[in-house]
From TrEMBL, chain A:
Pfam families: ETF. One of its GO terms (biological process) is amino acid catabolic process. GO terms for molecular function: electron transfer activity. It comes from the Eukaryota. Belongs to the ETF beta-subunit/FixA family. It is found in: Mitochondrion matrix. This is Electron transfer flavoprotein subunit beta. Keywords: Electron transport, Mitochondrion, Transport. InterPro entries: ET-Flavoprotein_bsu_CS, ETF_a/b_N, ETF_b, ETF_beta_N, Rossmann-like_a/b/a_fold. Heterodimeric electron transfer flavoprotein that accepts electrons from several mitochondrial dehydrogenases, including acyl-CoA dehydrogenases, glutaryl-CoA and sarcosine dehydrogenase. It transfers the electrons to the main mitochondrial respiratory chain via ETF-ubiquinone oxidoreductase. Required for normal mitochondrial fatty acid oxidation and normal amino acid metabolism. ETFB binds an AMP molecule that probably has a purely structural role. The electron transfer flavoprotein serves as a specific electron acceptor for several dehydrogenases, including five acyl-CoA dehydrogenases, glutaryl-CoA and sarcosine dehydrogenase. It transfers the electrons to the main mitochondrial respiratory chain via ETF-ubiquinone oxidoreductase (ETF dehydrogenase). Residues 24-216 form the Electron transfer flavoprotein alpha/beta-subunit N-terminal domain. PROSITE patterns: ETF_BETA (PS01065). Heterodimer composed of ETFA and ETFB. Identified in a complex that contains ETFA, ETFB and ETFRF1. Interacts with ACADM. Heterodimer of an alpha and a beta subunit.
TrEMBL record, chain B:
FAD binds at residues 229, 254-255, 268-272, 285-292, 306. PANTHER family: ELECTRON TRANSFER FLAVOPROTEIN ALPHA, ELECTRON TRANSFER FLAVOPROTEIN SUBUNIT ALPHA, MITOCHONDRIAL. It comes from the Eukaryota. Gene3D superfamilies: HUPs, TPP-binding domain. Keywords: Electron transport, FAD, Flavoprotein, Mitochondrion, Transport. InterPro entries: DHS-like_NAD/FAD-binding_dom, ETF_a/b_N, ETF_a/FixB, ETF_alpha_N, ETF_asu_C, ETF_asu_C_CS, Rossmann-like_a/b/a_fold. GO terms for biological process: fatty acid beta-oxidation using acyl-CoA dehydrogenase. The electron transfer flavoprotein serves as a specific electron acceptor for several dehydrogenases, including five acyl-CoA dehydrogenases, glutaryl-CoA and sarcosine dehydrogenase. It transfers the electrons to the main mitochondrial respiratory chain via ETF-ubiquinone oxidoreductase (ETF dehydrogenase). This is Electron transfer flavoprotein subunit alpha. PROSITE patterns: ETF_ALPHA. Residues 27-209 form the Electron transfer flavoprotein alpha/beta-subunit N-terminal domain. Heterodimer of an alpha and a beta subunit. It holds the Pfam family ETF_alpha.
């Protein structure tokens, strides 16, 4: 049975309208509602389903970030992960923490914990990078199955249906492997109150990137963060005729 | 006399330095192709590479590439086309492709490696970057200089300008932000020396199911008609197909319409689906969630048809029609 490592990220909640900081160095995060990156919820759910199907023996949830990352890990534990590892990264290093660093951390932990599958979301909705799974797989020299919408175990391999530009693609990957979850992979469960209570007793280990031998030095310098250009307010047209004539005026039809 | 000559020296020094800096840049672009045709995303990446400056090489690899290499050689701005033809490359498995790009990089010592931000580019380039031990930069929307790029974060609600500290910049390029490079070049075509890709034992390509459609490609269509939850069923999407066909438009969808099973996933427009910027975008029965807006708000003209006057889509639409789509869409189709 496979041992699974799931990467989860604490991000600003998807429904929050973000605000750019006045100093233009980032977005306002203090006092803003955060939650688990939606794609990571899907990754956790898939790991838990693997365990329920007796395909996985143990699920280890990992998150890199400041102390609050532990809340996200508790959510993963309440969903069914067995134990958690908090890789503490704070201050300026967290500001410029990128998939480059996180993938090195995940790769190190994957080897230390002797896992067979690393599961992450396809992208985090804050930095929108879509890189961590691919980079983790490269560092480990493992197979990768990105944008997965269905994962099945066949013999010692995984058969994965992937979402690609023109439709769907099926690949077979050898274990160990790194998988990134797309939206259609599953419908994540809600953590029930009894499970939230139980999650408080599950083990959580804290380490630093330095303990793992990973340098979190910045690879980018953030020069500035700005609001996107605002669209000019449009008009409400009374009927289809007006709409069609407006579009004709503009030369669209 | 003295001041004049010192000015000359100064001028010569500055422009000379700029020329040297530009000469040091060299980009290799991963040429993406489907069915013997170069993808539009690669043409946009070539435009981005021109902004970086220096020589531009395009790697054309695959199991059958003859026609594509010829097409690429004619694109203006391309210095050299490097080819690798091998059956191992069928199916675009990153496990097979990434080592190939790394060997091209080792041979050519490029300063930049670019690809379009398609599902192929997104799967592959981060794997290449990790093999080179550099931090990739996803989905850029502008080039400020050879090391400074602009990209969107938070579903397009903030725009970040960043400076890369890595010696090699590995970048995916947002197609809608750079116009496609046009014909008018005559690059040399040569086989990439020393490239003998081997099939990785890590993964195997089984097959694909592509959505068949006679309508224009979503990514490059001038007009897109898009439907959401308001359509209520897959059957009702026919209303949009009829309108789209009359307009020569592509058809897209919101996540709600995809999740409800009205249309396949590859039609999803948004933060996690496709990002498009057509001349005209017609949103029908779409409320306009942040995640959907991320995929279409750079469209030139946005039209919204929705019966809810409070729907957020009306805040970004140029023309809004508050009406029942089941009446308005057939009426509009009839009047075109």
């Amino acid at each position: 049975m496979a041992k699974v490592l799931v990467g989860v990220k604490r991000v600003i909640d998807y429904a929050v309208k973000i605000r750019v900081k006045p100093d233009k160095k980032g977005v306002v995060t203090d006092g803003v509602k955060h939650s688990m990156n939606p794609f990571d919820e899907i990754a956790v759910e898939e790991a838990v389903r693997m365990k329920e199907k007796k395909l996985a023996s143990e699920i280890i949830a990992v998150s890199c970030g400041p102390a609050q990352a532990q809340e996200t890990l508790r959510t993963a534990l309440a969903m069914g992960a067995d134990r958690a590892i908090h890789v503490e990264v704070t201050g300026p290093e967290y500001e410029t923490l990128q998939p480059f660093h996180v993938s090195k951390i995940l790769a190190k932990l994957a080897l230390e914990e002797k896992v067979d599958i690393v599961l992450v979301g396809k992208q985090a909705i804050d930095d929108d990078s879509n890189q961590t799974a691919q980079m983790t797989a490269a560092i480990l020299k493992w197979s990768q199955a990105t944008f997965a919408s269905k994962v099945e175990k066949t013999d010692g391999n995984l058969t994965v249906l992937r979402e690609i530009d023109g439709g769907l693609e099926t690949i077979k990957v050898k274990l160990p492997s790194v998988i990134s979850a797309d939206l259609r992979l599953n419908e994540p469960r809600y953590a029930t109150l009894p499970n939230i209570m139980k999650a408080k007793k599950k083990p959580m280990k804290k380490v630093t990137a330095k303990d793992l031998g990973v340098d979190t030095g910045a690879r980018i310098e953030i020069l500035n963060v700005e609001d996107p250009p605002v669209r000019q307010a449009g008009s409400i047209v009374p009927d289809v005729d007006t709409l069609v004539s407006k579009l004709k005026e503009k030369g669209h039809i | 006399m003295f001041s004049r000559s010192s000015n000359l020296v100064k001028l010569g020094g500055v422009s000379g330095f700029k020329q040297i800096a530009a000469r040091f840049e060299s980009t290799i672009i991963l040429g993406e192709h489907v069915d013997g045709k170069l993808c539009a995303s690669t043409l946009s990446a070539i435009t981005a590479a021109k902004k970086i400056g220096g020589d531009i090489s395009v790697l054309v690899a695959g199991n059958k590439i003859g026609d594509v290499a010829q097409q690429v050689a004619k694109i203006s701005g391309v210095t050299k086309v490097l080819t690798v033809e091998n059956d191992v490359l069928k199916g675009s498995l990153p496990e097979n492709w990434a080592p190939l790009i790394v060997s091209a990089q080792n041979a050519g010592k490029y300063t930049h490696i670019l690809a379009g931000a398609s599902s192929f580019g997104k799967s592959l380039l981060p794997r290449v970057a990790a093999l080179l031990d550099v931090s990739p930069i996803s989905d850029i929307i502008a080039v400020k200089s050879a090391d400074t790029f602009v990209r969107q974060i938070y579903a397009g609600n903030a725009i970040m300008t960043l400076k890369s500290k890595d010696p090699v910049k590995v970048i995916t390029v947002r197609g809608t932000s750079f116009p496609p490079a046009e014909e008018g070049g005559s690059a040399s075509i040569e086989a990439l020396a020393g490239a003998s890709p081997e099939a990785s034992t890590l993964s195997e390509w089984v097959g694909q199911e592509l959505s068949k459609s006679d309508r224009p490609d979503l990514g490059s269509a001038k007009v897109v008609v898009s439907g959401g939850r308001g359509l209520k069923s897959a059957e009702n999407f026919k209303l949009l197909y009829t309108l789209a066909d009359k307009m020569g438009a592509a058809v897209g969808a919101s996540r709600a319409a995809v999740d409800a099973g009205f249309v396949p996933n590859d039609m999803q427009i948004g933060q996690t689906g496709k990002i498009i910027a057509p001349e005209l975008y017609i949103a029908v029965g779409i409320s306009g969630a942040i995640q959907h807006l991320a995929g279409m708000k750079d469209s030139k003209t946005i039209v919204a048809i929705n019966k809810d006057p409070e729907a957020p889509i009306f805040q970004v639409s140029d023309y809004g029609l508050v009406a029942d789509l089941f009446k308005a869409v057939p009426e509009m189709t009839g009047k075109l």
